[in-house]
């Protein structure tokens, strides 16, 4: 029942709603048993010799039977109302708390958890929880009380007939626990696993369709998906077979209870010679036994729902279990804008390899340092430590001698602009997208950065200019164009520190030239940490760090490094060849 207290913890204020729903539903269950007793009383009146008042009593009993039946249903509705109120409250709070936690996550958290995944986890689990609380929980009280109440009733009337009707019920319960426990549970688990596998493969398949089409590999990629479907199919057939015998036995036994009752009744009549009493009780047991069977069935579903709700809450907690970035007790402000890495090491969570390995360097205020190196050498990781996407494991990342961990997050964000490899624009107007850089910017200021970031030509060709909503029909921007808009946003922000991860994607020389110009405007007079994928952009920077496996292997200006004839010189030669190759190739087509 830990799950119930966990859910109750999500209730704010009206903590009484859930217990209230349970109590009401319990009373409704008991009230629901009363009509059976009144009907028994009516039948007893019919069996006994008329004393004159019988008709009157039968009428009264009939009213009571109807009243208690209606009362039971009404109470159940009331219980459902309370449980729905509780469910909405818990669901809303679950979503709210998850979102509150998520906005405090380190930015790196969003690498692994895409917006789609986060939405799915929160949506799915909040709604499973809602279903459980609103619909299944009220039955919990009934499921526990009903068998107890029925047991009492069974022995209150005639214990011999009671025992007889208990036999099929006990057989049914044993069958049920066999199906639910042990092998059944194991099967349930592998069933859930293969269902998940099939879903994943389906998504993989759909996601890979463009690649598959280009490479003409339809058969291979479909194979995995097909295999997962077959596996699921076999699982379901096996699962169904497993239930086949116990389920049919269960159904026969629980519905064939009369076969257990009647022989005993005949024996009892033969033994006591009292027709009326035995028949009367027999009638009662025929009424009451199916009620018991139903409650066993319900408890089975409830068990399943309880398992699902547990799983839902767990998955939600797993998602938000990542430590939020610790906040400094006395956050400091930034007064100087130089960046300093002091023996910084960092490994990604769950990885033993160091992505950044004992790295030290500094960027004096107003200077530009470029990181170059092979793909996977750790450049992006290094850059992301400055705006605290992650915190360094060892060592310190400082801005103006203050550890970034000591700086108030808002202050840090205000002073650092970052433009990353794949920028994201919001599905709103271009104006709003750019204004994100500085919400209080005037329209003139925005127009100015549009020019500085070389975006004028993009805006001019859009139907509503700056007010065009992007991401809607016909207004998608190319990668290079998106990057320029992102640069406009960063220029508008005008932060003294700029962290730049150049786009790796190929852009045409025209676009490249525009982006370079925009970058020039953004980095003017700023402290810049830039990751360069095209060596043409680093020729004039103040210092180049060549990164390999998270370490600096060479350091110096473009000229100094060329003289060294080391790794950088090699990269430069390769780069020159590739540029010539591109130019040569273009010349061929002219
Ligand atoms: N979110 C992540 N979780 C775990 N490991 C990661 C994550 N991001 C990167 N890595 C690993 O860290 C190492 C450094 O990656 P990083 O992205 O910093 O390289 P990079 O130099 O920026 O490469 P590129 O030039 O391709 O952008 C790689 O081995 C990579 O596999
Ligand atoms: Mg990178």
Notable characteristics:
2 domains, six-stranded mixed beta sheet, 65% helix, 10 strands, four-stranded antiparallel beta sheet, 590 residues, binds adenosine-5'-triphosphate, binds magnesium ion, Rossmann fold, ABC transporter transmembrane region fold, alpha/beta
Strand order of the largest sheet: 6-7-8-3-9-10
Domains counted in the coordinates: how many?
A: 2
The oligomeric status of these chains comes to single chain
Proportion of residues in helical segments: 55-70%
Shape: elongated
- Average pLDDT, rounded to a whole number, is 84
Bound molecules: adenosine-5'-triphosphate, magnesium ion
Ends distance = 76 Å
3D architecture notes:
With 590 residues, the chain is an alpha/beta fold. The protein has helices at residues 2-9, 17-47, 54-103, 109-112, 115-157, 159-180, 182-215, 218-255, 258-272, 275-319, 379-385, 409-415, 430-435, 443-452, 456-460, 479-493, 509-523, 558-564, 567-589, and strands spanning 339-346, 356-363, 368-373, 394-399, 402-403, 416-419, 497-501, 527-531, 543-548, 551-556. The protein has 2 domains: 2-319, ABC transporter transmembrane region fold (Up-down Bundle), CATH 1.20.1560; 339-589, Rossmann fold (3-Layer(aba) Sandwich), CATH 3.40.50.300. Helix content is 65%, strand content 9%. The site of magnesium ion (MG) has 4 residues, from helix 11.
């Amino acid at each position: 029942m830990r799950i119930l207290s966990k859910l109750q913890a999500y209730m704010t204020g009206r903590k009484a709603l859930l217990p209230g729903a349970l109590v009401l539903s319990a009373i409704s269950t008991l009230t629901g048993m009363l009509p059976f007793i009144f009907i028994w009383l009516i039948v007893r009146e019919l069996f006994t010799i008329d004393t004159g008042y019988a008709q009157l009593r039968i009428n009264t009993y009939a009213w009571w039977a109807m009243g208690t039946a209606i009362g039971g249903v009404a109470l159940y509705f009331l219980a459902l109302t309370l449980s729905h109120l509780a469910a909405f409250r818990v669901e809303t709070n679950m979503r709210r708390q998850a979102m509150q936690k998520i906005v405090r996550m380190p930015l790196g958290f969003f690498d692994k958890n895409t917006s789609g995944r986060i939405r799915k986890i929160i949506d799915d689990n909040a709604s499973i929880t809602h279903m459980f609380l609103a619909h299944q929980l009220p039955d919990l009280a009934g499921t526990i009380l009903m068998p107890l109440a029925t047991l009492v009733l069974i022995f209150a009337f005639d214990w011999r007939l009671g025992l007889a009707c208990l036999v099929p019920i006990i057989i049914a319960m044993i069958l049920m626990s066999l199906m639910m426990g042990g092998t059944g549970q194991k099967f349930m688990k592998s069933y859930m696993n293969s269902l998940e596998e099939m879903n994943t493969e389906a998504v993989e398949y759909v996601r890979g369709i463009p690649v598959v089409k280009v490479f003409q590999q339809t058969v291979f990629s479909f194979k995995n998906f097909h295999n997962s479907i077959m596996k699921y199919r076999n699982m379901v057939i096996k699962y169904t077979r497993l239930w086949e015998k116990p389920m049919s036995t269960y159904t026969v036994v629980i519905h064939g209870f009369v076969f257990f009752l009647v022989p005993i009744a005949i024996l009892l009549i033969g033994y006591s010679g009292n027709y009326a009493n035995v028949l009367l009780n027999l009638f009662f047991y025929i009424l009451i036994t199916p009620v018991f069977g139903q409650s066993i069935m319900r408890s089975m579903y409830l068990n399943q729902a309880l398992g699902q709700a547990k799983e839902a809450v767990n998955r939600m907690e797993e998602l938000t279990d990542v430590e939020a970035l610790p906040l400094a007790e006395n956050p400091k402000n930034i007064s100087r804008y130089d960046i300093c890495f002091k023996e910084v090491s960092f490994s990604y969570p769950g990885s033993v390899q160091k992505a950044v390995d004992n790295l030290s360097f500094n960027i004096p205020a107003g200077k530009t340092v470029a990181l170059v190196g092979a793909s996977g050498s750790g450049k992006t990781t290094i850059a992301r430590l400055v705006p605290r996407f992650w915190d360094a494991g060892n060592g310190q990342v400082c801005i103006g001698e203050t550890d970034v961990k000591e700086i108030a997050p808002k202050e840090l964000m205000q002073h650092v602009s970052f433009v990353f490899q794949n920028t994201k624009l919001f599905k709103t107007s271009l104006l709003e997208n750019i204004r994100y850089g500085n919400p209080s910017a005037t329209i003139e200021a925005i127009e100015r950065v549009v020019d500085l970031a070389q975006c004028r030509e993009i805006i001019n060709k859009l139907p509503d200019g700056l007010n065009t909503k992007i991401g809607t029909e016909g207004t998608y921007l190319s990668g290079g164009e998106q990057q320029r808009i992102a640069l406009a946003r960063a220029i508008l922000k005008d932060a003294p520190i700029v962290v730049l991860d150049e786009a790796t994607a190929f852009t045409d020389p025209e676009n490249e030239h525009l982006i370079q110009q925009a970058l020039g405007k953004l980095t003017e007079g700023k402290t810049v940490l830039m990751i360069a994928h095209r060596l043409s952009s680093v020729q004039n920077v103040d210092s180049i760090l060549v990164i390999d496996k998270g370490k600096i292997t060479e350091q110096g200006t473009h000229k100094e490094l060329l003289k060294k004839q080391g790794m950088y010189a090699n990269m430069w030669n390769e780069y020159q060849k590739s540029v010539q190759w591109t130019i040569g190739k273009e010349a061929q087509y002219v």
